[in-house]
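Sequence and structure are no longer studied apart. As an example, we show below a sequence and the C-alpha coordinates encoding its fold:
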Amino acid sequence: MKLSRRTLLASGAATTLPLARARAQTPTIKIGVMNDMSGTYQNTGGMTSVICARQAVEEFNPVAKGFNVEVVFADHQNKPDNAVSIVRQWFDRDGVDMLLDVPTSSVALAVQPVVREKNKVYLNSGAASAVLTGEQCSPNFVHWTYDTYMLAKSTGGAMVKAGGDSWYFITADYAFGHALENDTSNFVKKQGGKVLGAVRTPFPGTTDFSSFLLQAQASGAKVLGLANAGGDTVNSIKQAAEFGINQKMKIASLLMFVTDVHALGLPVAQGLNLSETFYWDLNDRTRAFTNRVKAKTPNNWPNMVHAGCYSATLHYLKAVADMGAAKAKDDGRAAIARMKAMPTEDDCFGAGIIRADGRRIVPSYLFEVKKPAESKGPWDYFKLVQTTPADEAFRPLNEGNCPLLRS
Protein backbone atom coordinates (compact mmCIF):
# COMPACT_ATOMS: atom_id res chain seq x y z
CA MET A 1 0.00 0.00 0.00
CA LYS A 2 1.35 3.40 -0.96
CA LEU A 3 1.37 5.81 1.97
CA SER A 4 0.78 9.51 1.35
CA ARG A 5 2.27 12.26 3.51
CA ARG A 6 -1.24 12.97 4.83
CA THR A 7 -1.70 9.31 5.85
CA LEU A 8 1.64 9.27 7.60
CA LEU A 9 0.84 12.43 9.51
CA ALA A 10 -2.62 11.22 10.47
CA SER A 11 -1.36 7.92 11.79
CA GLY A 12 1.57 9.39 13.66
CA ALA A 13 3.92 7.13 11.71
CA ALA A 14 7.54 8.12 11.26
CA THR A 15 7.10 11.25 13.31
CA THR A 16 9.37 10.67 16.27
CA LEU A 17 11.88 13.46 16.64
CA PRO A 18 14.52 12.55 19.23
CA LEU A 19 16.02 15.69 20.69
CA ALA A 20 18.74 13.89 22.59
CA ARG A 21 19.93 10.29 22.65
CA ALA A 22 18.70 8.72 25.87
CA ARG A 23 20.91 6.43 27.88
CA ALA A 24 19.28 3.30 29.25
CA GLN A 25 19.07 4.65 32.77
CA THR A 26 17.79 8.10 31.80
CA PRO A 27 13.99 8.60 31.97
CA THR A 28 12.43 9.92 28.78
CA ILE A 29 9.51 12.35 28.68
CA LYS A 30 7.55 12.06 25.45
CA ILE A 31 5.48 15.00 24.12
CA GLY A 32 2.81 14.52 21.44
CA VAL A 33 1.88 17.54 19.33
CA MET A 34 -1.46 16.97 17.62
CA ASN A 35 -3.12 19.46 15.28
CA ASP A 36 -4.29 20.14 11.72
CA MET A 37 -1.28 19.77 9.43
CA SER A 38 -3.01 19.58 6.06
CA GLY A 39 -6.33 21.43 6.21
CA THR A 40 -8.05 24.67 7.20
CA TYR A 41 -5.86 25.30 10.26
CA GLN A 42 -2.48 24.10 8.97
CA ASN A 43 -0.92 27.58 9.18
CA THR A 44 -2.58 28.35 12.51
CA GLY A 45 -0.86 25.34 14.07
CA GLY A 46 0.73 22.73 11.85
CA MET A 47 4.46 22.11 11.83
CA THR A 48 5.20 25.53 13.31
CA SER A 49 3.69 24.30 16.58
CA VAL A 50 6.06 21.32 16.51
CA ILE A 51 9.01 23.61 15.78
CA CYS A 52 8.13 25.85 18.72
CA ALA A 53 7.77 22.88 21.09
CA ARG A 54 11.16 21.61 19.96
CA GLN A 55 12.59 25.10 20.53
CA ALA A 56 11.46 24.99 24.15
CA VAL A 57 13.08 21.57 24.64
CA GLU A 58 16.31 22.78 23.06
CA GLU A 59 16.50 25.85 25.27
CA PHE A 60 15.58 23.97 28.44
CA ASN A 61 18.28 21.33 27.87
CA PRO A 62 16.58 18.52 29.81
CA VAL A 63 19.59 16.18 29.65
CA ALA A 64 21.42 18.56 31.97
CA LYS A 65 18.52 18.12 34.42
CA GLY A 66 18.64 14.34 34.34
CA PHE A 67 16.02 13.36 31.78
CA ASN A 68 15.54 13.09 28.03
CA VAL A 69 12.71 14.42 25.84
CA GLU A 70 11.21 13.22 22.56
CA VAL A 71 8.58 14.99 20.45
CA VAL A 72 6.13 13.15 18.19
CA PHE A 73 3.38 14.70 16.10
CA ALA A 74 0.25 13.78 14.16
CA ASP A 75 -2.46 15.30 11.98
CA HIS A 76 -5.94 14.88 13.50
CA GLN A 77 -7.54 16.20 10.27
CA ASN A 78 -10.11 18.07 12.41
CA LYS A 79 -11.88 14.76 13.11
CA PRO A 80 -12.68 13.94 16.77
CA ASP A 81 -12.80 10.17 16.22
CA ASN A 82 -9.44 10.23 14.45
CA ALA A 83 -7.94 12.28 17.28
CA VAL A 84 -9.23 9.92 19.98
CA SER A 85 -7.71 6.96 18.12
CA ILE A 86 -4.33 8.67 17.84
CA VAL A 87 -4.30 9.72 21.48
CA ARG A 88 -5.18 6.24 22.75
CA GLN A 89 -2.40 4.77 20.62
CA TRP A 90 0.04 7.37 21.88
CA PHE A 91 -0.80 6.67 25.53
CA ASP A 92 -1.24 2.89 25.36
CA ARG A 93 1.49 1.90 22.91
CA ASP A 94 3.91 4.76 22.40
CA GLY A 95 4.43 6.08 25.92
CA VAL A 96 3.39 9.70 25.32
CA ASP A 97 3.24 11.66 28.59
CA MET A 98 1.98 15.07 27.48
CA LEU A 99 -0.52 16.04 24.77
CA LEU A 100 0.07 19.49 23.23
CA ASP A 101 -1.73 22.03 21.01
CA VAL A 102 -4.96 20.28 19.76
CA PRO A 103 -6.85 23.02 17.89
CA THR A 104 -10.49 22.50 16.79
CA SER A 105 -12.72 22.61 19.85
CA SER A 106 -14.73 19.50 18.94
CA VAL A 107 -11.45 17.56 18.85
CA ALA A 108 -10.16 19.20 22.03
CA LEU A 109 -13.32 18.24 23.92
CA ALA A 110 -13.31 14.68 22.53
CA VAL A 111 -9.83 13.86 23.84
CA GLN A 112 -10.35 15.50 27.24
CA PRO A 113 -11.86 12.40 28.93
CA VAL A 114 -9.24 10.10 27.39
CA VAL A 115 -6.41 12.12 28.94
CA ARG A 116 -8.18 12.09 32.29
CA GLU A 117 -8.80 8.33 32.11
CA LYS A 118 -5.13 7.67 31.35
CA ASN A 119 -3.94 10.26 33.89
CA LYS A 120 -1.70 12.10 31.44
CA VAL A 121 -0.98 15.81 30.90
CA TYR A 122 -2.96 17.86 28.36
CA LEU A 123 -1.83 21.42 27.50
CA ASN A 124 -4.08 23.01 24.90
CA SER A 125 -2.85 26.00 22.90
CA GLY A 126 -4.94 25.85 19.72
CA ALA A 127 -8.59 25.27 20.68
CA ALA A 128 -10.81 28.18 21.65
CA SER A 129 -13.91 26.99 23.49
CA ALA A 130 -14.05 28.35 27.03
CA VAL A 131 -16.08 25.26 28.00
CA LEU A 132 -12.72 23.48 28.35
CA THR A 133 -12.17 25.27 31.67
CA GLY A 134 -15.88 25.49 32.44
CA GLU A 135 -18.22 22.52 32.61
CA GLN A 136 -15.60 20.28 30.93
CA CYS A 137 -12.61 21.26 33.08
CA SER A 138 -10.21 18.52 34.16
CA PRO A 139 -7.42 18.09 36.75
CA ASN A 140 -5.23 16.88 33.87
CA PHE A 141 -5.72 19.95 31.69
CA VAL A 142 -4.51 23.53 31.18
CA HIS A 143 -5.96 25.91 28.58
CA TRP A 144 -2.88 27.88 27.72
CA THR A 145 -3.23 30.66 25.18
CA TYR A 146 -6.70 32.14 24.56
CA ASP A 147 -10.40 31.26 24.57
CA THR A 148 -13.77 32.39 23.24
CA TYR A 149 -14.55 34.53 26.29
CA MET A 150 -11.31 36.50 25.87
CA LEU A 151 -11.90 36.99 22.14
CA ALA A 152 -15.50 38.09 22.65
CA LYS A 153 -14.60 40.56 25.37
CA SER A 154 -11.60 42.07 23.57
CA THR A 155 -12.65 42.20 19.91
CA GLY A 156 -16.43 42.06 20.30
CA GLY A 157 -16.51 44.54 23.17
CA ALA A 158 -14.36 47.01 21.25
CA MET A 159 -16.61 46.83 18.18
CA VAL A 160 -19.72 47.62 20.21
CA LYS A 161 -18.05 50.56 21.94
CA ALA A 162 -17.11 51.90 18.49
CA GLY A 163 -20.79 52.00 17.47
CA GLY A 164 -21.31 48.47 16.17
CA ASP A 165 -24.53 47.83 18.07
CA SER A 166 -26.25 45.41 15.62
CA TRP A 167 -24.64 42.12 14.61
CA TYR A 168 -25.06 39.21 12.22
CA PHE A 169 -22.85 36.12 12.60
CA ILE A 170 -21.32 33.71 10.10
CA THR A 171 -20.50 30.77 12.35
CA ALA A 172 -18.53 27.57 11.82
CA ASP A 173 -21.01 24.83 12.71
CA TYR A 174 -19.17 23.04 15.51
CA ALA A 175 -18.28 23.59 19.17
CA PHE A 176 -15.80 26.43 18.61
CA GLY A 177 -18.07 28.50 16.36
CA HIS A 178 -21.06 28.03 18.63
CA ALA A 179 -19.08 29.07 21.72
CA LEU A 180 -17.58 32.14 20.03
CA GLU A 181 -20.95 33.29 18.70
CA ASN A 182 -22.58 32.73 22.10
CA ASP A 183 -19.87 34.52 24.10
CA THR A 184 -19.79 37.47 21.71
CA SER A 185 -23.59 37.72 21.60
CA ASN A 186 -23.63 37.95 25.39
CA PHE A 187 -21.16 40.86 25.35
CA VAL A 188 -23.10 42.63 22.59
CA LYS A 189 -26.40 42.35 24.46
CA LYS A 190 -24.91 43.36 27.81
CA GLN A 191 -23.71 46.59 26.20
CA GLY A 192 -27.12 47.37 24.72
CA GLY A 193 -26.57 45.93 21.25
CA LYS A 194 -28.70 43.52 19.23
CA VAL A 195 -28.04 40.29 17.37
CA LEU A 196 -30.13 40.28 14.19
CA GLY A 197 -29.31 36.76 13.10
CA ALA A 198 -26.75 34.09 12.33
CA VAL A 199 -26.02 31.45 9.73
CA ARG A 200 -24.13 28.22 10.41
CA THR A 201 -21.59 27.05 7.82
CA PRO A 202 -20.48 23.40 7.46
CA PHE A 203 -17.06 22.57 8.90
CA PRO A 204 -14.74 21.44 7.48
CA GLY A 205 -15.07 21.78 3.73
CA THR A 206 -16.73 25.15 3.13
CA THR A 207 -14.82 27.46 0.80
CA ASP A 208 -17.60 29.46 -0.87
CA PHE A 209 -19.15 31.89 1.62
CA SER A 210 -20.95 34.07 -0.94
CA SER A 211 -24.53 33.05 -0.05
CA PHE A 212 -23.83 33.44 3.66
CA LEU A 213 -22.31 36.88 3.12
CA LEU A 214 -25.33 38.03 1.12
CA GLN A 215 -27.62 36.86 3.94
CA ALA A 216 -25.56 38.90 6.39
CA GLN A 217 -25.75 41.99 4.18
CA ALA A 218 -29.52 41.63 3.79
CA SER A 219 -29.96 41.61 7.59
CA GLY A 220 -29.13 45.31 7.82
CA ALA A 221 -26.71 44.70 10.69
CA LYS A 222 -23.83 47.10 11.19
CA VAL A 223 -21.31 44.36 12.12
CA LEU A 224 -20.54 41.07 10.44
CA GLY A 225 -19.20 38.76 13.15
CA LEU A 226 -16.98 35.99 11.80
CA ALA A 227 -17.13 33.13 14.29
CA ASN A 228 -14.71 31.00 12.30
CA ALA A 229 -10.94 30.71 11.95
CA GLY A 230 -7.97 29.92 9.72
CA GLY A 231 -8.70 29.40 6.03
CA ASP A 232 -12.43 29.99 6.63
CA THR A 233 -11.76 33.47 8.00
CA VAL A 234 -9.39 34.27 5.14
CA ASN A 235 -11.94 33.15 2.53
CA SER A 236 -14.80 35.01 4.26
CA ILE A 237 -12.88 38.29 4.31
CA LYS A 238 -11.63 37.94 0.73
CA GLN A 239 -15.13 37.24 -0.55
CA ALA A 240 -16.64 40.06 1.53
CA ALA A 241 -14.20 42.43 -0.17
CA GLU A 242 -15.11 41.06 -3.60
CA PHE A 243 -18.82 41.75 -2.94
CA GLY A 244 -18.09 45.15 -1.41
CA ILE A 245 -19.69 44.05 1.85
CA ASN A 246 -16.73 45.39 3.80
CA GLN A 247 -17.76 48.85 2.61
CA LYS A 248 -21.26 48.45 4.06
CA MET A 249 -20.63 46.46 7.25
CA LYS A 250 -17.83 46.47 9.80
CA ILE A 251 -16.14 43.07 9.86
CA ALA A 252 -15.38 41.63 13.29
CA SER A 253 -12.74 38.95 12.78
CA LEU A 254 -13.36 37.34 16.15
CA LEU A 255 -10.53 34.81 15.84
CA MET A 256 -7.79 35.90 13.50
CA PHE A 257 -4.04 35.39 13.59
CA VAL A 258 -1.04 37.17 12.13
CA THR A 259 -0.72 34.17 9.82
CA ASP A 260 -4.20 34.91 8.43
CA VAL A 261 -3.28 38.56 7.81
CA HIS A 262 -0.20 37.35 5.95
CA ALA A 263 -2.40 35.14 3.76
CA LEU A 264 -4.83 38.00 3.07
CA GLY A 265 -2.28 40.73 2.45
CA LEU A 266 -2.53 44.25 3.88
CA PRO A 267 -4.58 45.75 1.02
CA VAL A 268 -7.47 43.46 1.98
CA ALA A 269 -6.86 43.11 5.75
CA GLN A 270 -6.05 46.75 6.59
CA GLY A 271 -8.21 48.25 9.32
CA LEU A 272 -9.43 44.96 10.75
CA ASN A 273 -9.35 44.52 14.51
CA LEU A 274 -8.28 41.26 16.14
CA SER A 275 -7.11 39.99 19.51
CA GLU A 276 -4.10 37.86 20.39
CA THR A 277 -2.17 37.19 23.58
CA PHE A 278 1.11 37.23 21.65
CA TYR A 279 2.53 39.26 18.77
CA TRP A 280 6.08 38.86 17.55
CA ASP A 281 6.78 42.62 17.58
CA LEU A 282 5.13 43.41 20.90
CA ASN A 283 8.32 43.93 22.93
CA ASP A 284 11.99 43.01 23.13
CA ARG A 285 11.28 39.55 24.54
CA THR A 286 8.74 38.59 21.87
CA ARG A 287 11.15 39.79 19.19
CA ALA A 288 13.97 37.76 20.74
CA PHE A 289 11.86 34.59 20.74
CA THR A 290 10.79 35.15 17.13
CA ASN A 291 14.37 35.69 16.05
CA ARG A 292 15.27 32.32 17.54
CA VAL A 293 12.62 30.40 15.59
CA LYS A 294 11.85 32.27 12.36
CA ALA A 295 14.78 30.76 10.46
CA LYS A 296 13.22 27.35 11.14
CA THR A 297 9.81 28.42 9.82
CA PRO A 298 10.49 31.40 7.53
CA ASN A 299 7.17 31.32 5.69
CA ASN A 300 4.97 31.05 8.78
CA TRP A 301 6.11 33.28 11.61
CA PRO A 302 4.73 32.32 15.02
CA ASN A 303 1.26 33.41 16.11
CA MET A 304 -0.17 33.04 19.61
CA VAL A 305 -0.93 29.32 19.15
CA HIS A 306 2.67 28.61 18.18
CA ALA A 307 3.97 30.77 21.01
CA GLY A 308 1.65 28.90 23.35
CA CYS A 309 3.19 25.57 22.34
CA TYR A 310 6.64 26.93 23.19
CA SER A 311 5.49 28.45 26.48
CA ALA A 312 3.45 25.44 27.63
CA THR A 313 6.27 23.01 26.84
CA LEU A 314 8.80 25.14 28.70
CA HIS A 315 6.64 25.38 31.83
CA TYR A 316 5.85 21.68 31.76
CA LEU A 317 9.56 20.82 31.59
CA LYS A 318 10.22 23.14 34.54
CA ALA A 319 7.61 21.22 36.54
CA VAL A 320 9.08 17.86 35.46
CA ALA A 321 12.52 18.96 36.61
CA ASP A 322 11.09 20.24 39.88
CA MET A 323 9.18 17.06 40.80
CA GLY A 324 11.36 14.48 39.04
CA ALA A 325 10.76 12.89 35.64
CA ALA A 326 9.72 9.49 37.02
CA LYS A 327 6.98 10.97 39.18
CA ALA A 328 5.83 13.28 36.39
CA LYS A 329 5.49 10.31 34.02
CA ASP A 330 3.63 8.29 36.64
CA ASP A 331 1.01 10.90 37.61
CA GLY A 332 -0.32 13.48 35.15
CA ARG A 333 -2.59 15.09 37.75
CA ALA A 334 0.38 15.62 40.04
CA ALA A 335 2.33 17.21 37.18
CA ILE A 336 -0.55 19.60 36.44
CA ALA A 337 -0.82 20.44 40.15
CA ARG A 338 2.89 21.25 40.22
CA MET A 339 2.49 23.46 37.13
CA LYS A 340 -0.36 25.35 38.82
CA ALA A 341 1.77 25.91 41.90
CA MET A 342 4.54 27.53 39.85
CA PRO A 343 4.16 30.97 38.21
CA THR A 344 4.67 30.93 34.46
CA GLU A 345 7.43 33.04 32.89
CA ASP A 346 8.78 33.11 29.33
CA ASP A 347 9.70 35.44 26.48
CA CYS A 348 6.41 35.00 24.63
CA PHE A 349 3.97 36.05 27.36
CA GLY A 350 6.00 37.31 30.29
CA ALA A 351 4.64 36.46 33.72
CA GLY A 352 1.40 34.56 34.29
CA ILE A 353 -0.45 32.13 36.52
CA ILE A 354 -2.55 28.99 36.08
CA ARG A 355 -5.87 29.12 37.92
CA ALA A 356 -7.54 26.26 39.74
CA ASP A 357 -9.87 25.65 36.77
CA GLY A 358 -6.90 25.17 34.44
CA ARG A 359 -7.15 28.58 32.76
CA ARG A 360 -3.76 30.21 32.23
CA ILE A 361 -4.01 33.95 32.81
CA VAL A 362 -2.07 36.54 30.78
CA PRO A 363 -2.98 39.93 29.25
CA SER A 364 -4.81 40.10 25.92
CA TYR A 365 -4.14 42.68 23.21
CA LEU A 366 -6.48 44.30 20.72
CA PHE A 367 -4.68 45.10 17.48
CA GLU A 368 -5.57 46.96 14.30
CA VAL A 369 -4.12 45.75 11.02
CA LYS A 370 -1.84 48.38 9.49
CA LYS A 371 -2.34 50.08 6.14
CA PRO A 372 0.23 49.02 3.52
CA ALA A 373 2.02 52.38 3.82
CA GLU A 374 2.41 51.91 7.59
CA SER A 375 4.15 48.54 7.34
CA LYS A 376 7.93 48.53 7.40
CA GLY A 377 8.32 45.08 5.92
CA PRO A 378 7.14 41.44 5.89
CA TRP A 379 5.09 40.43 8.94
CA ASP A 380 4.96 44.04 10.25
CA TYR A 381 1.18 44.02 10.35
CA PHE A 382 -0.23 45.13 13.71
CA LYS A 383 -0.51 48.26 15.77
CA LEU A 384 -1.63 47.98 19.39
CA VAL A 385 -5.02 49.53 20.20
CA GLN A 386 -5.58 48.47 23.80
CA THR A 387 -4.42 46.01 26.46
CA THR A 388 -6.75 44.08 28.75
CA PRO A 389 -4.93 43.21 32.01
CA ALA A 390 -4.52 39.55 32.84
CA ASP A 391 -6.96 39.64 35.75
CA GLU A 392 -9.69 41.07 33.47
CA ALA A 393 -9.00 39.31 30.16
CA PHE A 394 -10.61 35.95 30.91
CA ARG A 395 -13.90 34.76 32.39
CA PRO A 396 -14.09 35.21 36.19
CA LEU A 397 -13.28 32.01 38.04
CA ASN A 398 -16.70 31.84 39.72
CA GLU A 399 -18.65 32.06 36.43
CA GLY A 400 -17.33 29.00 34.62
CA ASN A 401 -19.10 26.20 36.54
CA CYS A 402 -15.91 24.14 36.69
CA PRO A 403 -16.59 21.00 38.83
CA LEU A 404 -13.04 21.12 40.23
CA LEU A 405 -13.98 24.18 42.25
CA ARG A 406 -16.73 22.25 44.04
CA SER A 407 -14.53 19.37 45.16
